[in-house]
Amino acid sequence: MSVQDLILNLHRFWAEQGCYLAPTYDLEVGAGTMTPDTFFRVLDKRPWRVGYVQPSRRPDDGRYGENPHRVQKHFQYQVIMKPSPADIQDVYVRSLRSLGVVLEDHDLRFDEDNWESPTIGAWGVGWQVLLDGLEISQFTYFQQCGGIDLSPVPVEITYGLERLEMFLEQKDDIYDLDWSADVTYRDLRFREEKEFSEYNFSVASVVMLRQAFGACQKEAARLIEKDLLLPAYDMCLKCSHNFNLLDSRGAISVTERVKMISQIRALVNDVARRYTAVKEAV
Amino acid sequence: MEFLLELLTEELPASHIRSALGQIEAGFRKELAAARIEIVSLRTLATPRRLIVVADLASGQEDREEVVTGPPLAIAKGPDGALTPAGKGFARSQRVDENLLEAIRTPRGEYLGFKRKAKGTPAAEILKDAVPRILGGLSFPKMMRWAESPFRFSRPIHGLLCVFDGVPVETSFEGFKATDETVGHRIASPGTIKARNFAEYRAELEKSFVVVDPEARKSTILTQIEDALAPLKAKVYPDPELLDDLTLNVEHPLVVFGSFPEAYLSLPLEVLSTAMREGQKLFSVVRDKKQLPHFLGVADAAADGKGLIRKGNERVLRARLEDARFFWDQDRKVPLKERAAGLKNVVFQEKLGSYEDKALRLKKIVSYLCDKLKAAEIKAETIEAAGLCKADLLTQMVKEFSGLQGRMGGLYAKQEGLPAAVHQAIYEHYQPGSLEDASPTSLAGAVLSIADKMDSIVGVLGVGIQVSGSSDPFGLRRNAHGVCKVILDRKLRFSFPLLLDKVLAVYGDRLTVERAAVKASCLEFFEGRLRFMLEKRGSRYDLVAAALGPGLDQVYDVLPRVEALDALKSSPQFEPFILMAKRINNILKGLPAAKVNPDIFVEKEERDLYSMFSIIRDNAQPMIARGDYARAQGITFKIQPVLNTFFDKVLVMAEEKKVRQNRLGLLQSINRMLLGIADYSQVVVEGEKPAKPKAPR
């Protein structure tokens, strides 16, 4: 099974569970959780089911294409089910079986792991799912997002596609994975990893990034005032990515780090507060 | 009759299970005692998905005899003994046969009345209400909501099996009606099973690949480990905590033996075992204290017939070790000294500055301590170690495996060729991490360990952060235990209050709380921690309180003081001596200080007492000074006969003021000497009502 077969399988499986299959969001994000299809949709009271592939950028994880399992951009398959269905663990287990995994031959574990993202004021309770010791998914009952207590509670399942694929193909090197029958992960990603690692760690302009951070922060605040909350949130995402780049450039001291994260969070929390207030008014 | 309860949930964290089982047992004991249901036996069991109670209970409350009283006998019966209309009316209203009426004696006089049996409530009725109350009252370190309910628990709930005497109890919890059904292992046998009693429950689940008794799972793990390692003549590196956690992480333990390429054995042992333990919860395998290229894991599976679980774990571990090797190679390219320069960007605590500031303070504190401990030979090395000890916080290895902080710095320092005292001190300076953990083996390590912890305690208390109940964000209790343990283990004697002064002085004006107040709260904090530690060692709380009485000038001395008391507590002289010490204490209570003048003694007995006291004091003082409390206490006991005679023959509260003051002065001197050894008034002797022990802070 290739990476694209894996994606097709997951799409079919979750579509059958009533998920809307969202297109990938077109901004840099650190995790599938951060896109509007999760962030805004978990805030209100309406039921919501969505599944999508999201490239996740973590500049600090770049290894110049030299590490067999760490990359500065990887792909997540993100599922949100709201409210969390009572049998969601069983559904998840079935999704693995649907990929052809004979679970009776393996050790599947739900291992305590509580997820949080201070940047978007979100946290949840759940597990990392381990298959023979390999973390293949994060399984989280979302408790808070944008600083707001979520009710109903959504469940978020995030599959690490490369991890899962390495398990399915029994391969030790991420670059040896097959994306499709005749395109490998190396063909698609190796040069990108090399160049972006160089950019993230050594070349990105700290001055430009700082200015961009400041400009997006200002713009977000201005847009919040005008109740243009989706564009405002986009600006927060840009802040977050600029921040991650500055961090991987080693340009941020620990104190400054805390300060910048809380600046982004304050904006995101404002967006969430206004969004729920406006929704209720409508 | 047998009671069986299983709350089926999604996978609970091991720490939550431990906490829940304690609460559940206490909850049932309390509820059932209050409801007068006798408990013959009660125990709790668990798997990651099940909280289980098995109990043998009485079928219900005992039937009770009730006494019903009516009008006073004088009104209810006439002079002839026959019932009056009032008496008859009482019988009618109570629907009781007149022949059953009798005279009931009460403190207020005799009344007409009768006795009747009150039927006890069946246990099932009591359980009906008690079960949801107990389960609903459970609290967990971190709680969550799910779906659309506001209810909070550790993880979502999936079912309630609850049977008493073979019949489901008519109860429910959070929408789950109690049944006699549950399910088997999530993967190996997920079907429904029925159980009306514990024997059936355990057997059926066993067939469904669930072992409900944690002890049984643990012994399975141990046996399988032994079997796997027997051919290698190797041993698993003992890790009881990991074993306990794994026991609570699986329903059906399966030990998996695997290997990794020998090339990784060039990594330090610390790194290998941490990569195995922290990342994947694997045990390391050793032979003759040498790491072998193998590991043992505990899977939750029926079997690994195709070896896929082993292979999977091997692959994951290989990737981790490859990372670790990368970090090890990269980190060593930058000397610690160069790395330490980056500490100015790492915040120790907002108000207390960076780790660079901390390192500068540590240099001053260790220098002071080396002087006080007359350890000039290690002073230069300890100061060097103090400057470098936090540098490993900036290494990739420690960023990945934070549990290696300190040890990693020590290993890198050794690689750099720094002197043994320096790398050892860095390596050991977080030790001991707990009361069970070993203290540093080197003196330099001990000094740096104390300095680091004292800096944290004084600093954190000094910016007004309080330690209370469950709130101890900087782990100050653990730090204080560490300081005390190092001092006690290594018998380090130095003035503790002066060390506090030094640390306060080193902080200068960074602290927001006034110095005297910080010092007082530190002393109080340490007194509480020492009390906790010594009681935990098994000393009686009152002897600990007595040993703490003379104060903390020398932290170490509290130990020989309590040991001296422990040694003497069963001697026949002990109790009379304590009573005498208490007598002196009582006489002197609230009186102003008086002076003793040997020239104005009147009676022979007071002169005898004074000269005996002088001899004892002169002998005891050097013993106290060098911390030999066993002998100091032994010798002070010798004052007893003279003191006895004194109390028999001499009236302390003499008419004449001068004589009286002189005698009180003598007793005060004796009391002062005793208080230098222990506060004997804290000791509880037979026949006294024990004072409530102070709650440990």
Description:
The complex is a heterodimer of chains A (282) and B (697). Chain A is α+β, with helices and mostly antiparallel strands and 282 residues long. Chain A has two domains: 3-200, Bira Bifunctional Protein, Domain 2 (BirA Bifunctional Protein, domain 2, 2-Layer Sandwich); 204-281, Methane Monooxygenase Hydroxylase, Chain G, domain 1. Chain A is 44% helix and 21% strand. Chain A has helices spanning 3-16, 36-39, 88-98, 161-169, 185-203, 206-225, 229-248, 254-281, and strands at residues 20-21, 48-57, 73-82, 108-112, 116-117, 122-131, 134-145, 148-149, 155-160. In chain A, strands 1, 2, 3, 4, 5, 6, 7, 8 and 9 form a nine-stranded mixed beta sheet that branches. In chain A, strand 5 (116-117) and strand 6 (122-131) form a beta hairpin. The longest helix of chain A has 28 residues, at 254-281. Chain A starts with a helix and ends with a helix. Chain B is of the alpha+beta class. Chain B has five domains: 2-60 and 122-207, no CATH class; 64-118, no CATH class; 214-331, no CATH class; 348-537, Hypothetical protein af1432 (Orthogonal Bundle), CATH 1.10.3210; 558-682, Isoleucyl-tRNA Synthetase, Domain 1 (Orthogonal Bundle), CATH 1.10.730. Chain B is 49% helix and 14% strand. A five-stranded antiparallel beta sheet of chain B has the order 2-3-1-7-8. In chain B, strands 13-15-16-14 form a four-stranded antiparallel beta sheet, with helices on both faces. In chain B, helix 16 (443-462) packs across helix 18 (496-507). Chain B is flat and about 105 Å long. The model of chain B is unreliable at 691-697 (pLDDT under 50).
How are the SSEs placed, and which strands pair?
The complex is a heterodimer of chains A (282) and B (697).
Chain A: H1 3-16, E1 20-21, H2 36-39, E2 48-57, E3 73-82, H3 88-98, E4 108-112, E5 116-117, E6 122-131, E7 134-145, E8 148-149, E9 155-160, H4 161-169, H5 185-203, H6 206-225, H7 229-248, H8 254-281
Parallel strand pairs in A: 1-2
Antiparallel strand pairs in A: 2-3, 3-9, 4-6, 5-6, 6-7, 7-8, 7-9
Helix pairs in contact in A: 6-7, 6-8, 7-8
Chain B: E1 2-9, H1 14-34, E2 39-47, E3 50-57, E4 64-72, H2 73-76, H3 85-94, E5 102-106, E6 109-118, H4 123-136, E7 157-164, E8 167-168, E9 172-173, E10 176-177, E11 181-183, E12 192-194, H5 198-207, H6 214-229, E13 235-236, H7 240-249, E14 253-259, H8 269-280, E15 283-287, E16 290-300, H9 308-331, H10 336-340, E17 347-349, E18 353-354, H11 355-372, H12 376-388, H13 396-400, H14 407-415, H15 420-428, H16 443-462, H17 476-490, H18 496-507, H19 515-536, H20 541-548, H21 558-568, H22 574-588, H23 604-625, H24 629-636, H25 640-649, H26 657-675
Antiparallel strand pairs in B: 1-3, 1-7, 2-3, 4-6, 5-6, 7-8, 9-10, 11-12, 13-15, 14-16, 15-16, 17-18
